[in-house]
Specification:
Elements (H helix, E strand, L loop, with lengths): L2 E5 L4 H12 L3 E6 L2 H11 L5 E4 L5 H13 L4 E4 L14 H23 L7 E5 L12 H22 L4 E6 L7 H4 L15 H14 L4 E3 L2 H10 L4 H11 L6
Parallel strand pairs: 1-2, 1-4, 2-3, 4-5, 5-6, 6-7
InterPro entries: NAD(P)-bd_dom_sf, SDR_fam
GO molecular function: oxidoreductase activity
Pfam families: adh_short
């Protein structure tokens, strides 16, 4: 039986990916900071088949705990899904909150990737969940967008480093999804134009296709999102930033 570890598995995209992998008979280790939610997910998916690991990946000690777990156990797949962000003007968001976002979205992701890849073998896969904003920008979400640009470049570089070893690495970049991420960030998906919002089910569908295909170092989820980025190629960078600023939930009056 294949084994996978998923961070941020207690809700949203992470939970939906966990459901799909469970259906494909993966044995899962579900990581999140909310023990009650994790236990609920474990019950839904099957307590005997899956385990939970409670960790807050904004805390150094918990990052080290999960990294140690990865070095001491063998996994076929690591999904670095945990992430957060805050909407608002840069200096109106507490700096500590934004530094926590950087710790979770970058430091924890790099640490877990390092632990996993240090003992990965041919056939294993690492998928880092980024964002459409890795390839755009978001006034009103500057730090979040910056961290996701890091994830995209980091993942693509690792894809090249490990492809000849038979280890697949990819950055999977969903657009706005109808999940609890946006409410946790101080807004909700209704703040985005409906044409850019996908359901978590649609996101998980494309994730599973990307995992099965194991071809692309960068996957942009959603035809609408791919078309939007394609259209941006014909605009100046200034114009695209202005567009993103106008639709940003972080700058709504």
């Amino acid at each position: 039986m294949k084994k996978a570890l998923i961070t941020g598995a207690s809700g949203g995209i992470g939970l939906e990916i966990a459901r799909r992998l469970s259906q494909q008979h993966y044995q899962l280790t579900l990581v999140a900071r909310n023990e009650q939610k994790l236990k609920s997910v474990q019950e839904q998916l099957g307590r005997e088949a899956h385990q939970i690991l409670v960790a807050d990946l904004t805390i150094k000690e918990d990052i080290e705990k999960v990294s140690k777990h990865l070095t001491e156990n063998s996994y076929d797949l690591l999904v670095n899904n945990a992430g957060n962000g805050s909407y608002g003007r840069f200096t109106e968001i507490p700096i500590g909150e934004q530094l926590n976002t950087m710790t979770l979205n970058m430091e924890a992701l790099v640490s877990l990737s390092y632990a996993f890849l240090s003992k990965a073998v041919s056939g294993n896969a690492l998928i880092n969940i980024g964002s459409l904003l890795a390839h755009s920008s978001l006034p009103g979400g500057a730090v979040y967008a910056g961290t996701k640009s890091f994830v995209a470049n980091f993942s693509e570089s690792l894809w090249y480093e490990y492809k000849n070893k038979g280890i697949f690495v990819s950055g999977f970049n969903p657009g706005a999804a109808d999940s609890d991420f946006h409410s946790n960030s101080g807004s909700d998906t209704s703040a985005f134009p409906s044409f850019v919002v996908s359901s978590v089910s649609e996101v998980a569908d494309e994730f599973m296709k990307a995992l099965a295909a194991r071809k692309k170092p960068r996957v942009i989820q959603g035809f609408k999102n791919r078309m939007m980025l394609f259209g941006f190629r014909f605009l100046s960078r200034k114009s695209t930033i202005n567009i993103m600023g106008k639709i940003s939930p972080g700058l709504k009056a």
